[in-house]
Amino acid sequence: MNRSGLLAGTWACLLGLAVASCNHQAADSSLATPPAASAAASPTKPAISADDTTWGNYLAAQGHIHVKDVSMHPYIYVIPGGDSPQADTRRQEESDSISHAVGPILIPGGLLIIGGPSAQQTSAFITALSKQLKADALRGIVVLVVSEASQEKVVQGALKPTGATIRFVAF
Questions:
Q1: DSSP state of 151
Q2: What's the total number of domains in the chain?
Q3: Can you name the residues that pair with 146 across neighbouring β-strands?
Q4: Is 38 found in the same domain as 27?
Q5: With bands split at pLDDT 50, 70 and 90, how would you rate the model's confidence at 42?
Q6: Residue 11 belongs to what domain range?
Q7: What are the backbone angles phi and psi of residue 74, rounded to the nearest 5°?
Q8: What's the whole-model pTM score?
């Protein structure tokens, strides 16, 4: 490839990136919707039997609505319901993932979104997780929990020693 072809290719790539970033900014500008307008567009809770992708998308949408002041990439954890060995293993793996991520990956200014089809399992998960973490381990980190309103006090009490900035959204 000659120099002019390389230069033309470089310009084409840069133009493509500029157009893509313009579209990205336009998409993000919708996040600045006033709370009253976003409440009307609040996502619908998925069915309990919905797959993890559906639940993950739901939790991400809740994050876009309720945590606009955090600019870092969110870490989303879909906590499985049920008492099967697979669900127990996955909850333990998710707990290990969070506890090992605090510090090297999940730093102050970060966002952790936790939720799932079973409000009771999500609360139990958060309670067990908080016992694994040192006091103030989540200081400066926003933890958004999406669960049933009846679980809010349990979640608040469990996360308080971690120092997290706790936000709770009832589905």
A1: G
A2: 2
A3: 115, 169
A4: no
A5: confident
A6: 1-32
A7: -80, 150
A8: 0.75
Helix, coil or strand: residue 116: coil
Residue 22 has pLDDT above 50, yes or no: no
- 5, two tokens: 């072809």
Q: What is the pLDDT of residues 72-117, one digit of tens each?
A: 999 999 999 999 999 999 999 999 999 998 888 889 999 999 999 9
| Rounded CA separation 123/32 (Å) | 30
Phi, psi dihedral angles at 10 (to 5 degrees): -65, -45
In a shared domain, residues 26 and 61: no
Q: Do 116 and 152 fall within a single domain?
A: yes
Regarding whether 88 and 11 lie in a shared domain, the answer is: no
- Asked if 55 contacts 78 with a C-beta cutoff of 8 angstroms, the reply is yes
* 149 and 81 in a common domain: yes
The helix/strand/coil state of 78 is strand
Q: Please tell me whether residues 28 and 43 are part of one structural domain.
A: no
Write down the pLDDT at residue 105. 86
